Amino acid sequence: MCGITGYVGHKNAGPILIEGLKRLEYRGYDSSGVGVIDLSTGHIIVRKTKGKIRNLEELIQQQNLPVSRIGISHTRWATHGAPNHVNSHPHADSAKKFLVVHNGIIENYEVLREELQHQGSVFVSETDTEVIPHLIASLYQGDFLDAVRQAIVRLQGSFAIGVLCADHPDTLIAARVGSPLIIGVGKEENFIASDVPAILDRTKRIIYLNDGEIARLTCDNVEIMKFSGAAVRPKIHTVKFSVDAVKKQGFAHFMLKEIHEQPEVLERILKSYLKQEEVNFPELNLSPGQLKGFERIGIIACGTAYHAGLVGKYAIEQLAGIPVFVDAASEFRYRDPILDEKTLLIAISQSGETADTLAAGREAQARGAKVIAVCNVVGSSLVRESHGVIYTHAGPEIGVASTKAYVAQVAVMFLLALKLSRNSGRTVPAQRESIIAQLRQAPAAYKKILAAKNQIAQIARKNSHFGCFLFLGRHINYPTALEGALKLKEISYIPAEGYAAGEMKHGPIALIDEYRAVVCVAPQSEIYEKMISNMQEIRARKGKIIAVATQGDAAIKKHSSHVIYIPATHNILTPLLTVLPLQMLAYFIAVQLGCDVDQPRNLAKSVTVE
Ligand code: F6R
Q: What's the CATH number where 327 sits?
């Protein structure tokens, strides 16, 4: 969602701020803006506009952005008010002394707005954000930091903010509650941003601001304190990945690049967590005794991560015999869940900043459960709030549609199931060894499926005209069907429904005719024959079938218009492989339809508001 960058240093701020915004484009946005303090006049100057960052660049070419040493910039994903230039950030107070960029939602903005209007503030936008600069201005008596601090304690909701004051052209203030914000520590220059990629080519030294903290940045100092004023000694992390990780490196889209990175992601995960056929999660923070003591497991997540959680349920119940429930985090947090200290709660999130997942994790902790994060982002809110963490090691994921992060989450779910299975008596060592041996083959299997790229692209071209897709799978590949449908609808906007194949006759069969395409996930498994029966029912109604099947299954051809093969693997591991053809199919269909694959309309990479 909204992206923030901020700069204070000795260089011209404008180009740095625009460059930073470009690196945050993946978060999803519909307008953008930049504000600086003019070095020669000391005035606040703002340029903002609807649409893509290139529109902002064009505006700056026409209207010039003065040379400055300090500024803030923003990509807005509209919540309160239409995406237009008035509602874009930054927002200022009536006297244009304070300038604010904000990510999050101010829930009490109507009350504050009324109060400030009575005091004479004139509002120009429909946004909740605009109350912030007016509120700061109303509290300002010469001390910039103090005015911001007094203002933020009156805000309800979630926010990450960057604030400028024309009276203090050497100081940038930032604060956060519930929305992500990082500080980049440079040499005689410092930065704020919503995420690391924004500043990765400037510095790798990062401070993750915590909830309830406020930071004062000048070009040569970063000072952090609690909202109460108590000083905080910040921990500076050094980011390991290079700037190349956030570039396309010759691929047409980030999504395609990330699909191709999946073999190395799998290799990294296996190398990190499999030691001589034993699974070891070094940051789990649970002793073997504690791990044995859990009587049930809850998994909470959103979207694609939720689908990885569903795979986890099948794997853990089957291999370890521990009952597992999986909830969408947005449902879990309001359903009065029954939890206790015998429940291990696993929160899966690529970003670690998803508002619902964070809230669900807090709810679970409050009810006595231990929360373990399965997360891709070091230092994210989820990681910091959880008892332990299993990192997914997928590297930065820039494409809005999650691919490599999902595969990494699924791989981690299998490793977790294997770890838990050791004490369960449900598997014998030979079974575990066989699964581990097949897991080790997964990166090579990925390379084989990737090599069928042209065939999958051709299938995509031949089928991109269908106005509706149904994705069917059973058992552990039911989540694969859900994920395949989600990928397709996200990036191609084609209505796509994921369903458990056994449920087809209870409703979705009504959709099937010669105008629908049905993707059937039918690898080798205990329920393969049942899947074939479903395919026959689809054929009988003239539905066009694209099947994903196991290499060597020639028989499936007679039931399908197209077959995409995956290498043979252990039945339980098939979701790790079957998802790849579906990611590629969605990608090539979206390309064929001319869609904006990396930044699909209306979507945000990290959903930081509820
Ligand atoms: C879909 C997608 C989303 C995310 C969901 C959760 O491609 O990316 O459905 O999976 O918004 O995000 P995280 O994993 O960051 O919590």
A: 3.40.50.10490
